[in-house]
Amino acid sequence: MSRSPSHSGPSQRMLRVGELIRRTLSEILQQGDLHDPELSGVSITVGEVRVTPDLKRATAYVLPLGGGNREGILAALRRNKPEIRHMIAREMTLKHVPDLKFEIDETFDRIDATRRMFSDERVRRDLESPEDAPE
Fold first, then answer.
1. Each residue of 2-20: pLDDT tens digit?
2. Which of 50, 53, 41, 44 is nearest to 20 (CA)?
3. Predicted TM-score (pTM) of this structure
4. What domains lie within the chain, and their CATH numbers?
């Protein structure tokens, strides 16, 4: 059964490939096999990998532990992209490894901002249900 072109969500195949790349990339970064001093001894979380529908490109959302030196880590990952792709290709059974793009995972920043917003007295007051409001 074919997919409707208007469907906006990722396919099961895209999700599977993205998760497989995420796990493999996490293992590579954890093992410290990359020969870059900037990546040596740094814990990097790979929060998500999003793959394009044609499986030719993948965006890995990463965050160094503690959030420090984001730009330096991003630059080092981009610099080492060919070696990382080669390592992923060795570990996976894909016919072609997607071209990798690295971006900072800002999920935690958005969660913190949302938490701060909901703790604001004005917002809490607006969210109260009419039954909770004093008469």
1. 555 555 788 999 999 999 9
2. 50
3. 0.73
4. 12-127 (3.30.300.20)
